[in-house]
Design brief:
Elements (H helix, E strand, L loop, with lengths): L8 H8 L4 E2 L1 H18 L6 E2 L9 E2 L3 E5 L2 E7 L13 E8 L6 E5 L2 E2 L1 E2 L15 H18 L5 E7 L2 H5 L4 H4 L1 E2 L1 E2 L7 E2 L4 H17 L4 E5 L2 H11 L6 E3 L4 H10 L4 E7 H8 L14 H10 L4 H8 L4 H10 L4 H17 L5 E7 L5 E4 L3 E2 L1
Length: about 375
């Protein structure tokens, strides 16, 4: 099979014709790398090159730089590619300051970067809203710079975003209890752009390629984390993987008309709770996690009224899941079963067996359904 005929996430992105961009986490890592290099050598690398989790090595031009005794700042303008991202064009700065030996890497929220004020997010209350993967990416690059230039690697990194507090008003951060600005995000370092028509067309092409290759089991995944999970679970080849993103309905409707023997739907718990509640478009601008629905499911799983009330009042879907897990209520499995049943309803009797896997941000399976249908 030619490289152009191959399926999977990369082929789908190529087929859309859309230009990918860089996450805020990638930009903050590039700025951190440049600032720490200047702190140790007296010169800013421009452009500065970083290594992303999947091995890509993009280079970033510096838009701002400043070097003083014991402190350096570098700034990178975010390019979101063809994605309609509210942070496109934002100036992301990292200020790196030396710390005493043994301090490690400490993160601070500068102007325009939020602080976590409510539980249920992947960071403790009081922490700057710099998510775990970007933190690790910055730590890794600090270590590389230290090894190359004789530094200790003990630094404070203050991440800031020009006008970030204003931009954050257009996001869900205030509702989630992230106050004061934006979150620094990203799991792969790359922004995968979407155009509804182009992405849905790429999903259809992915199904066609899988069927032409004789694949009887395909997986619709919401992102790279869930994709890794289904590969680990089922050892599926690349051309059996459908990057459905938020378009669960597009996968189900096309597979209804062009069946395969088995379809696995895998995604984050919060996104799949939307499918379980009957939403076929999982984008945050068009559907939200229904905590009342989760509370009703929790009751069905044995939760008492006090726990159900806490679930209904939870800050995020993850917080609701954690509350139920602590009480021994299998909310993840309940969501997976409901999502499977919703998928079967959309398939309308097509000869397709469906199972659903819910994962957390780390890719740990937090809920699954048994296969059904066919």
């Amino acid at each position: 099979m030619s490289s152009e005929a191959k399926g999977g996430r990369g082929a789908q992105l190529k087929h859309t014709g859309l230009r990918p961009g860089w996450t805020t986490g990638s930009c903050a890592t590039a700025a951190t790398t440049a600032a720490y290099t200047a702190l140790l050598t007296g010169a800013f690398p421009d452009p500065v090159t970083i290594t992303l989790p999947k091995g890509q090595t993009p280079s970033f031009a510096l838009a701002a730089e400043e070097l003083t005794a014991g402190r350096a700042m570098a700034g990178v303008v975010k390019d979101a590619g063809d994605d309609p991202d509210v942070t496109h064009g934002a100036l992301i700065r990292a200020t790196v300051r030396r710390l005493p030996a043994g301090s490690g890497v400490v993160f601070r929220a500068g102007p325009g970067v939020g602080t976590v004020t409510r539980p249920g997010l992947p960071l403790p209350v009081g922490e700057p809203a710099v998510n775990p993967v970007p933190r690790q990416l910055m730590r890794d690059h600090v270590a590389r710079v230290a090894a190359a230039h004789g530094g200790s690697g003990d630094v404070e990194i203050t991440v800031s975003v020009d006008h970030g507090e204003e931009i954050a008003r257009s996001t869900w951060n205030p509702r989630l209890g992230i106050l004061g600005g934006l979150s620094i995000l990203g799991t792969t370092g790359i922004v995968v752009p979407y155009s509804c028509s182009a992405w849905i067309d790429s999903i259809r092409r992915g199904v066609d390629v899988a069927r032409a290759a004789g694949r009887t089991h395909v997986a619709g995944c919401t992102g790279s984390t869930s994709e890794r999970t289904v590969v680990a679970e089922y050892d599926l080849p690349e051309d059996a993987l459908l990057d459905m993103g938020d378009f669960a309905g597009a996968v189900l409707k096309y597979v209804r008309r062009h069946p395969v023997d088995r379809l696995t739907v895998c995604g984050g718990f919060a996104k799949l709770s939307k499918l379980a509640a009957g939403h076929l478009d999982l984008h945050s601008a068009r559907s939200q996690v229904d905590k009342g629905f989760l509370a009703a499911l929790a009751r069905r799983g044995g939760a008492d009224e006090a726990l159900a009330a806490r679930v209904a009042d939870a800050n995020t879907g993850l917080a609701a899941l954690q509350l139920c897990a602590a009480a021994g209520v299998p909310l993840g499995d309940l969501v997976a079963r409901e999502a499977r049943d919703q998928a079967l309803a959309v398939l309308r009797g097509a000869p397709v067996v469906v199972d659903v896997i819910c994962v957390d941000r780390a890719g740990t399976v937090v809920g699954r359904s048994s296969p059904a249908g066919g």
